[in-house]
């Protein structure tokens, strides 16, 4: 009985440390900011075209894209979250 109890405690400790380590790694990945190149890649997933200009204001990249039909579109990418919004 003691062996079964000791084994179940050991397994519980092992799994809790594994999940704790993976959640710490995930939170460190989320803390990394998006760079300009990544912002352009994210913006082009939403709007295809030629990148004209990238500006930075606070935590937002604005990627200006010239579409094939001649329209210019601004796509906003949050530096911290990677969230993409179109104008």
Automatic annotation (TrEMBL):
Signal peptide location: 1-25
UniProt entry keywords in alphabetical sequence: Signal
**Domain of life from the UniProt record:** Bacteria
Query: What's the name of the protein?
Result: PepSY domain-containing protein
Q: Which organism is it from?
A: Pseudoalteromonas rhizosphaerae
Lineage of origin: Bacteria, Pseudomonadati, Pseudomonadota, Gammaproteobacteria, Alteromonadales
